[in-house]
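Supplementary Note 2. Why include the ligand at all?

Several targets in our set were suspected to adopt different conformations when bound, so apo predictions alone were not considered sufficient. For every target with a known small-molecule partner we therefore ran a joint prediction. The input for pyridoxal-5'-phosphate is given below.
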Amino acid sequence: MSIYLDYNATAPVRPEAAEAVAVALVSAGNPSSVHAAGRAARVLVEDARAEVAELAGVKVGSIVFTSGGTEANALAIESARAAGFARIIVSAVEHDAVIENANATGLCVEILPVDGEGVADLAWLAKALAGEGRALVCLMLANNETGVIQPAAQASELVRAADGWLHVDAVQAAGKIAIDFNALGADTLALSAHKLGGMQGVGALAAGPRATLARRLHGGGQERGRRAGTENVPGIAAFGVAARAAREGLDVMAAQAVWRDRLAARVAEAGATVLGEGAARLPQTLGFAAPGYSSELQVMGLDLAGIMVSAGAACSSGKVKASRVVQAMALADLAPYALRVSGGWASSEADWIACGDAWVAAYERHTARRREVA
Ligand code: PLP
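The joint prediction is reproduced in C-alpha cell form.
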C-alpha cells in the first residue's frame, strides 16, 4: 500500500498535464521563432498564460513565467528593491523563498509577528507601516505547514494607505482555494506549478499596475523583457492545463476539509495539538504536534505503513528541523513534534482514514515504548 499525503511538498502531476508535456516535447518550436513550429510553441505558452491568469484572477499580460515559486518571490522582492522601497516587512511564517530573498537585498527586514493561530498581527503591521520609508510587505496567502490563511485583503488596505507594495506568496493557496488578485489588493503574487499538479521548475509572478518589475535575468527579450531565457514550453503548457484543472476542481479540494477534520479529531483525542485550528485554513492541510513524538519518528512511522507525509516543513536539505512556523506561533515547545498531512486532487477519504489508523497505531506503540523505558 502506498498513500501520498504530501501535496504541499509537491503534488503528483495531473494526467492531463503530463499529456501536455508529451505533446509540447514532440513539437520542436522556440516560441520566439516566426516559423510555424515557433508559432505553435507560442500558442502553447500564451494559452497557458491565459489559464494561469484566470486562476489568479488577473489580466493575461500580468503574468510572467519563472522557474518556480522561489524565483517568482525573488523577482517580486528584487523588483521592489529596484523600485526604491527602503525596507521590507515579512511575516514570521513566510517560506524561506521569501525570507532569504528579503535578507539577500541587504535592506532592513522587519518580522511581522503572528498570533497563536498563526495569523499575522495587523495592528503591529499598521504601526510598523507608520515608520520611516516606503515598505514592501510580504504576506503569504496560505501557510505551507499549517494551511492557515492570512488576512491579505485587510493587510493590503494598510499597505496601500502607506503607499507600500504588497507581495503575496500564493504558492500553497493556488488551486486549493479561489484566488482573486484584485480583491486581495496585491501588487505582486507568486505561483508555482508543481503544487497544483503541474511540473516542478515552473512558476509565475502576477504583477498589478502599481508594480514595476525589474529585469532579474539579462539576455533575450522573453516575457516582454522581464525574464530572459527561452521559455520552458513543456512545463509552461502543463502549468496551464494544471491551472485549469485546479480551478475546475476547487470543490473537490473543498470537500477534503471534512476528512481533514475527522483526522484532526482523532489525533487530538490521542493527545496531539492541532495547529491553527481556530483560523481559516486550506481545506486539505492538517498541521499538528504530538508532544514527545518527534517529527522525524512520526514521518518514519507512517512511511513504514506506506503513508507519505512531511515533518512540519519539508526541509529542502532532506533533514528534519524543528518547525520555525510553530515557533513563530509561540508554541516553541511543540516545534520538534510537528507533522503535516496534505491531500490534493487525487486523494480519497480512504487515504485520510488510513493515515489516521496508521498514525494512531504508531503513536500508541511509541507511547508504550516510552512507558517501558521510564
Ligand atoms: N512558497 C511557499 C509557501 C512554498 O510552500 C514553496 C515550496 O514549498 C515555495 C514558495 C517555493 O516554490 P518552488 O518550489 O516552486 O520554488
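The chain has a mean pLDDT of 95. The chain has two domains: 3-11+251-373, 15-248. Comparable summaries for the other entries are listed in the accompanying table.
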